[in-house]
Amino acid sequence: MLDIDSLAFRLASALAIGLLIGAERERRKGEGPSRSPAGIRTFAIASLLGAVSMTLGTPWLLAACTLGMAALSAIAYLRSSEDDPGLTTEAALVLTVLLGALATVRPGLAAGVAVAVVVLLAARDRIHRFVRVALSEDELSDALVFAAGVFVILPLVPNRYLGPFNAINPHTIWVIVILMMSISAIGYIAVRLMGPRFGLPLAGLASGFVSSIATIGSMGARAVKEPTLSRPAVAGAVLSTIATVIELAIVLAATSRAALQALAIPLTASAVVAVVYGLLFTFRTLRTEVPDQTQRGRPFSLRTALGFALAIAAMLLVSAALNSWYGERGVIAAAALAGFADAHSVAVSVASLVASGKLNPQDSVIPVLAGLTTNTFAKMAVAFVSGRRRFAMQVIPGLLLFLASAWLCLFVTR
Fold this sequence. Notes:
Layout (H helix, E strand, L loop, with lengths): L6 H21 L12 H16 L3 H22 L7 H16 L3 H16 L1 H11 L2 H20 L13 H25 L4 H9 L4 H14 L4 H26 L1 H28 L17 H25 L1 H12 L3 H13 L9 H49 L1
């Protein structure tokens, strides 16, 4: 059996890498005088060239071979640039030399990178079509903003409690902002990919990750505009509250696992009730025809995300101050008031108090549920204003059951 650490195995890995990448390039090489100069044999030899150069243990030899291959690739490109202005094959050829060298040191890593390269090469048409046709300019812009937030800003944000009462951890706040942007983008993508054929209930569930209150408002307006869609609109409105629970669980997990464990049963019960109530309306309207009105927009709003960060910071300060002055009662009052605007900032604030040791995990349950309660009351008001009496009378019972299940589980388990 071939030893994985033997030189023969590593050279064989380098050869396999060259053959793998070369096989994909051979299929696109073309025929005749205008064909590409690099095919399966060239790539296999290039990979072995890198492996042998590395095996001889002379870094300058590997550098010379890589530069030589780059020079040959440049000459080949100049001769064929009129027929094919792309540099993909030439760049892949130089990379293959380096992957062959890497295979003599880290064969597993080299093989993984080679597979990724082949996937990129083989998916050329799909990638081009996705970027040029499927992906809008706004979506690409938001993707770049998200990448900057994750890979540039997040590593620079200090991970310690700062400010008055040591209430604010900038790193935690920014992680929550990234999570909210991610959740919003997931909901947006779900609507884009699945389309309206699954009806308003699925759209409501997905859009709830962006804003459950806004979703209920839009569903109510839809029900008023098209009364025949009242039932699926109700299902979408109630199912959007599931997104609220999921988001609460995510932000609690990111902030304080202890707080999440204390709230696990009430949140699970409320989510189950919302699912059952929403599905009751969904099953009655599965065959309801929903007009295709899905439009491209933005996966998330940077202004909303930053506003959310400021709301979290303010809520953290208020909660910490009230907790310092009045104890647990002060935290409950602050949570209830903040819940009218947003339930997630309440959860983050209270969970941060738990994470910093200022609040017991069990004492975090009532403030979070108080914020969820006032937030649900705000949803009821939006349902009545946007969808009028008929829509509200169908949505409000589901929201009341949603709340009642959470509080009932709290009292039963205590």
